[in-house]
Structure to design on (332 residues):
């Protein structure tokens, strides 16, 4: 089975520098809010140049070992939950730990062991998580994709990104998840660098950082073991105050840019217009209209020839002669 975290080479909804269209054409054509997942197109992908060392690891060995560990932890957590001899609340007097404390201890130990397994087998790659609502996902995804292709993210360790497409059936309140892949989730400095770029250059918060190993063993936020499903939480990577400052700087810059554009447009509209040639009044479509503008048609002239082609002038002369002769006989 091919991992869901591996860039698909033969897939129309995946872009790389060798693709026939540029990144702007790609994000304009394939928008996550418009592409529906019919079972064959769950993701839209973008990546940098491929490196043969991106996934050199013992994935299968690591996954098998981690799965066995997770199973044992799940069983132990269930035992603690059902053990009536373990108190619900801890006791300072007896030193007994509560069910919650014992569960959290098992879960914390599991997190440490999973890190050891990942590093031992070189399976340390993972992704930064972002969630976006349907009405904003297109803009956020396009920004991240362009950044990874030729923007601020190119200077970081981020290697690829993908976004979930839309469900086939309409789902109110649906959130699209965006993954930004990094080669080593345990390299805190590199992860923080990616996080800062996303905050300062794109104005988006992370929702955690997850190991691909966690995905392989099915460890998510609803797993019965209760083991944390992310390697890092935001507050561990950066203090809230710095997160807030970076986002505020981004939005202040966006607002400033909008104001400059608005001012430029207003200045252009208020600038005095250069005098131009006055347009002539549109002429009437009637070629027979009089020059006085009243629109009366010129009276057609009488033709010297009748409808039968004979000369009208000679006929009129003859008629006049007959009329005069008649008048002379009457007067006499």
């Amino acid at each position: 089975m091919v991992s869901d975290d591996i860039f698909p080479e033969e897939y129309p909804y995946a872009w790389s520098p060798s693709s026939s269209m540029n990144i702007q054409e790609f994000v304009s054509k394939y928008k996550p809010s418009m592409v529906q997942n019919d079972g064959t197109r769950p993701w839209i992908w973008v990546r940098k140049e491929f490196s043969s060392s991106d996934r050199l690891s013992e994935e299968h060995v690591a996954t098998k070992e981690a799965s066995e560990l997770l199973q044992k932890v799940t069983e132990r957590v269930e035992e603690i939950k059902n053990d009536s001899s373990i108190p619900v609340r801890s006791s300072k007097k007896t030193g007994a730990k509560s069910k919650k404390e014992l569960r959290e201890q098992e879960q914390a130990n599991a997190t440490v062991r999973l890190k050891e397994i990942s590093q031992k087998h070189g399976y340390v790659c993972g992704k930064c998580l972002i969630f976006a609502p349907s009405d904003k996902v297109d803009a956020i995804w396009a920004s991240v994709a362009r950044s990874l292709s030729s923007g601020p993210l190119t200077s970081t360790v981020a290697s690829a990104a993908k976004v979930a497409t839309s469900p086939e059936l309409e789902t109110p309140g649906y959130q699209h998840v965006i993954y930004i892949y990094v080669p080593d989730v345990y390299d805190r400095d590199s992860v923080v660098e990616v996080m800062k770029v996303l905050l300062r250059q794109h104005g988006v918060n992370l929702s955690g950082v997850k190991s691909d190993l966690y995905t392989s063993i099915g460890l998510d936020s609803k797993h019965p073991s209760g083991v944390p499903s992310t390697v890092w939480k935001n507050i561990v990577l950066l203090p809230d105050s710095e997160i807030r400052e970076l986002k505020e700087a981004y939005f202040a810059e966006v607002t400033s840019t909008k104001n400059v554009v608005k001012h430029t447009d207003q200045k252009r509209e208020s600038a005095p217009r250069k005098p131009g040639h006055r347009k002539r009044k549109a002429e009437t479509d009637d070629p027979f209209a009089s020059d006085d503008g009243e629109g009366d048609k010129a009276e057609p002239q009488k033709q010297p020839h009748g409808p039968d082609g004979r000369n009208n002038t000679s006929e009129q002369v003859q008629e006049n002669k007959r009329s005069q002769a008649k008048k002379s006989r009457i007067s006499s």
Observations:
- Confidence is low (pLDDT under 50) at residues 281-311.
